Structure formats: C-alpha cells, structure tokens
Please model this.
Amino acid sequence: MRLKTFNTGEMASGGRRLALVFSLAAALGGCDTLSSMNPFDKPEVYKPEVLPTVPADKLYNEGLARMQNGDSEGATKKFEEIDKQAPFSPYSRKGLILTAYTNYQASKWDDAITASKRFLAQNPASPDAAYAQYIMAMSYFNQIPDATRDQERTEQALRAMQELLDRYPRSEYVVDVREKMLVARDQLAGKEMNVGRFYLEKRNYPGAVNRFRDVITKYQTTRHVEEALMRLTEAYMALGITNEAQTAAAVLGHNFPDSPWYKDAYVLLESGGLQPREDRGSYISRLFNGFSRTVTGLIR
Model:
C-alpha cells in the first residue's frame, strides 16, 4: 500500500491549522469543555413553586377578619382563593357572595356584578340569591351617569331591579329598590328631555314631539312630565296641530294646576288666540285619564 505524500505547501498549510487549534486550546485553558461556552447546552431547570393548600374554613375566617378590619381588597382575595382551592366546599358558596359584597364595598362595581351573576347562576335557590341580585342592581345603580350622557347603565340598573321585584317580591330589599327605580326612571326621562329640547332649538318639531311623547308615555311618575306637556304644547303649536296643543295644555292644567309650566302653556296658546281644551280622543287625554285613576287609587 502506498503512503500518501504531502508537498511542501500542504505541510505548511497543515502546520498553520495545527497552530490555530493549539492556540484556541490555550485560550480555553480555564474552561472544562467547549460546551461550557454554550448557554443553551445546560438550560436552567424550572422548578414550579408548590404552594401549600390552605383549608377552606381557614381562608373563609381570614377573609372575614380582613373584612371586619376594613380591608375589602384583602378579604376579596381570601374569598376568591376558596373558589380556586375548594370550589365544591360549603365555604365556596359563602365566599362567592362575600366576594360580591367586598367588591361592592370597594366600589369595584363591575367585579361585584360579575361575582353576583356567578353566584345566581350557581345558586338560584339559595336564601342569599335575593341579596346577590340586590348587590348586582345597586352596582349598576351606582354607575348611573348624568342625564347628558349615554344611559345604558341606567337601563341595566332598572332591569336588574325589576328582576329582583319579580323573583323576590317579599325580600327585604323591595322598598329600597322601588325608591331607586323612581330615581333611575327620572334619569331616563331627563335624557329624553335633553334631546327633545335640542330638537326644539333646531326646529325639528316632529323629533321633539317623539321625545316628549316618550316622557309622558313611559315616565309619567317623574318630575319631567309637567315640562314635557308644556313642550308638547309648544311643538304642536309650531307644527300647526292646534288640537293636540290645546289637549296637552288642558291635561297639564287638570293634573298640575299650580305648575309654572301650565302658566307658560296657557300664555302660549292665548298668543295664538286659543285656550286649553281637552280632546278625549287624543292619545294624551287617554294616557292621563289612566294616570289620574292611578293617582286617585294611591291616595285612597
């Protein structure tokens, strides 16, 4: 067998390669291996922290203690932890209703609503169901904006309060809810009045009539109904529908004879050579005949 021979150039090249290898080895003399230079060669092993399971009753009592000390946020965390660690324990139901309550106390309205809805979905027949519904309704109620803004939260509050009256008519929250429903309806009526006045200013009289009509149709028990009747008188006069204008003024005078709005309506009609006169066939007259009977029944 013939041995391979190298010429002078090949030997010189080989010598240079050997010198490079020895030079690199010397530079790495302080390292055990080349692989120690690779940070990915020995990845750090992640060791998850295992938290000890806290008994549900202990979490519940700790939550109560924090709640009594005024730490609503800390109490909420304890009650939420019960649901994570012991979702089927008797303390889970108690913790969920208290989660709704502590979020309400902390003015975290949306979190209170979420917890209340979850409680009701899981415990519809619970003795605390009415309370959960009440927390949800009041959380919506506390977010009612002023009458110049969108009234979605007001409508949600009314729906939640009506659900409480329908489902739990004998609950201890009924009286308070009825009072707050009046406030919410007054707010919705105020929104309609704002839009109606805007239409009047822009001389969009049909649009104004529709808004004021909504007020006297849907919100007769609010403080805005007197002005709405006066504005209907104004809008119908501008449209030349004098029969409805006279009826609106007559109904206003009959139900609210001392109202300053009636005086304005009377003067407006008089300036056109007219006087208040009720047309019994008008929708306004029909609406307020029922309204008068309701008021009479309440007085009796």
